[in-house]
Write a structure and sequence with these properties.
Elements lengths: L11 H7 L14 H12 L9 E7 L17 H9 L1 E3 L2 E2 L4 H10 L28 H7 L3 E7 L18 E5 L10 E5 L2 E4 L2 E2 L2 E2 L9 H15 L6 E6 L23 H26 L6 E7 L23 H4 L3 E4 L8 E3 L3 E2 L3 H8 L16 H6 L7 E7 L22 E6 L2 E5 L34 E5 L15 H15 L29 H26 L1
Helix pairs in contact: 6-7
Family: Belongs to the sulfatase family.
InterPro entries: Alkaline_phosphatase_core_sf (IPR017850), ARSB (IPR047115), Sulfatase_CS (IPR024607), Sulfatase_N (IPR000917)
GO molecular function, one term: sulfuric ester hydrolase activity
Length: 560
């Protein structure tokens, strides 16, 4: 009998306790599957199947550009390789260099400068979240009849209840609110003494699910349960944001078997984590087929940013890493797999950005995009499915007015158009411009992982002249950013600086508040969760109104 993702060594009792689904546990042998599936459809709901596709968006965390089999990795990813080969590989696909920015742009279709999240990430102790006036993708899909479910990492803020996933368009949520945490215990310490539990089911801590299961496998089990209980005749949106392969580097022992020869311990652990993730996606795909979703489904796979070499990730031959605006930080592994694609088995080299999924998926879902929503994304379905030209000609990678660490940056260096102390990056057609301090800029080849620890002697570097704060590359001709052309093409530099300036005029103020001591999980039952109470705000407001009223009365008496 076929069993999907059953953990090695678990007893039958454990399986029942954890609620892990397998074909056997549901009474579905090979001969029974089709009949039972038909009966399930009839039982759950009658009527013709929806013309709206089932949408499954899988977001990996910190997966490096090289870290997939079809990009030449030594790490085996047979599921990803097969799904990509049978679908459309996105080989000119961009995300943001860190977690929160990519997630916010996916769910709103807007650049960071238009949501106020253009600086860093949302920290656990910050009273901050994706601004509530932004319409989200699941909200738009719910409008046209979709059932919306999120499993995995949120990382878009939670300081007040209105920021939670279930308040932002998801019918159900199972996962973590923070950016990282232990894969087994689901605990996270933000700083010494500021520690708490971070596993949620909808709006409450999921203590009942704290059975020590590795999160990648636990999230897959939850996805299987959702698919088993939903009617495949009705459209579903599944957002699966796996924690892997983000640090801490943890994986079940059996996934190390093929990677004992990797001496670098971080790379070895990372490889095991990615192998487990690949298997998880295999199990998700099996469940889609088994329960009758697959033929009318669209599966999109993406990493949220580049890999972190110090934590085992590889972006070779791209330059830089996670957290930087070099290609290694923002060019991602991505593909679309679907029976609905017209050009299956193809490669898309057109420009695609993570903001594009918002309008693309709403259009596919037969939804409407409000005219007053100023989107930065484009509908790129025909680009992906039919091989047409992309409607996108530029990408604002970001403008971060707070990050001004380039001490030698100046208006003069920006030709009086732009202050080059500001960290920014923009792509227009073939050209890419960076200003300020773009971040760690080494090329880290595979040989760097050949030793027991990270060995920077293998890294390639370029010694920039002192005070350099502007770079220009032709990414089409030089995707590895080896030849800076800023001195050779000053007119192109000026054009791109003007484009940056135009974008900056549309930016909203940065939201990056200081930490709030009330966020300490010790004050919230040991759990990371909403701490900002609306009634507290109201009391303060009422109190201030009372004080103002008293002042006014005093002033009236004085006047009389």
């Amino acid at each position: 009998m076929l069993a999907v993702g059953v953990l090695a060594g678990l007893s039958v009792l454990s399986l029942l306790t954890y609620g892990y689904l397998s074909w056997d546990s549901l009474g579905l042998g090979p001969a029974e599957t089709e009949a039972t599936r038909t009966g399930l459809g009839e039982e759950l709901g009658a009527g013709a199947p929806s013309s709206q596709p089932h949408i499954v968006f899988i977001l990996a965390d910190d997966q490096g550009f090289r870290d997939v089999g079809y990009h030449g990795s030594e790490i085996r990813t047979p599921t990803l390789d097969k799904l990509a080969a049978e679908g459309v590989k996105l080989e000119n696909y961009y995300v943001q260099p860190m977690c929160t920015p990519s997630r916010s742009q996916f769910i709103t279709g807007k650049y960071q400068i238009h949501t106020g999240l253009q600086h860093s990430i949302i920290r656990p102790t910050q009273p901050n979240c994706l601004p509530l006036d932004n319409v989200t993708l699941p909200q738009k899909l719910k409008e046209v009849g979709y059932s919306t479910h999120m499993v995995g990492k949120w990382h878009l803020g939670f300081y007040r209840r209105e920021c939670m996933p279930t308040q932002r368009g998801f019918d159900t949520f199972f996962g973590s609110l923070l950016g990282s945490g232990d894969y087994y215990t689901h605990f996270k310490c933000d700083s010494p003494g500021i520690c708490g539990y971070d596993l949620y089911e909808n709006d409450n801590a999921a203590w009942d699910h704290d059975n020590g299961i590795y999160s990648t496998q636990m999230y897959t089990q939850k996805v299987q349960q959702i698919l088993a209980s939903h009617n495949p005749r009705k459209p579903i949106f599944l957002y699966i944001a796996y924690q892997a392969v983000h640090s801490p580097l943890q994986a079940p022992g059996k996934y190390f078997e093929h990677y004992r020869s990797i001496n670098n311990i971080n790379r070895r652990r990372y490889a095991a984590m990615l192998a487990c993730l690949d298997e998880a996606i295999h199990n998700v795909t099996l469940a889609l087929k088994k329960y009758g979703y697959y033929e009318n489904s669209i599966i999109i796979y993406s990493s949220d940013n580049g890999g972190q070499p110090m934590a085992g990730g590889s972006n070779w031959p791209l330059r830089g890493s996670k957290g930087t605006y070099w290609e290694g930080g923002i060019r991602a592994v991505g593909f679309v797999h679907s029976p609905l694609l017209k050009n299956k088995g193809s490669v898309c080299k057109e420009l695609v950005h993570i903001t594009d999924w918002f309008p693309t998926l709403i259009t596919l879902a037969e939804g409407q995009i409000d005219e007053d929503i100023q989107l930065d994304g484009y509908d790129i379905w025909e680009t992906v499915s039919e091989g047409r030209r992309s409607p996108r000609v530029d990408i604002l990678h970001n403008i971060d007015p707070i990050y001004t660490k380039a001490k030698n940056g100046s208006w003069a260096a920006g030709y009086g158009i732009w202050n080059t102390a500001i960290q920014s990056a923009i792509r227009v057609n073939h050209w890419k411009l960076l200003t300020g301090n773009p971040g760690y800029s080494d090329w880290v080849p595979p040989q760097a992982f050949s030793n027991a620890g990270p060995n920077r002697w293998h890294n390639e570097r370029v010694s920039w002249s002192a005070g350099k704060t502007v770079w220009l590359f032709n990414i089409t001709a030089d995707p590895y950013e080896r030849v800076d052309l800023s001195a050779r093409y000053p007119d192109v530099v000026k054009q791109l600086l003007r484009r940056l300036s135009q974008f900056n005029k549309t930016a909203v103020p940065v939201r990056y508040p200081p930490k709030d001591p009330r966020s300490n999980p010790k004050l919230n039952g040991g759990v990371w969760g909403p701490w900002f109470k609306e009634d507290e705000k109201k009391k303060k407001s009422d109190k201030s109104k009372g004080v103002n009223k008293q002042k006014k009365n005093k002033n009236k008496k004085k006047a009389n």
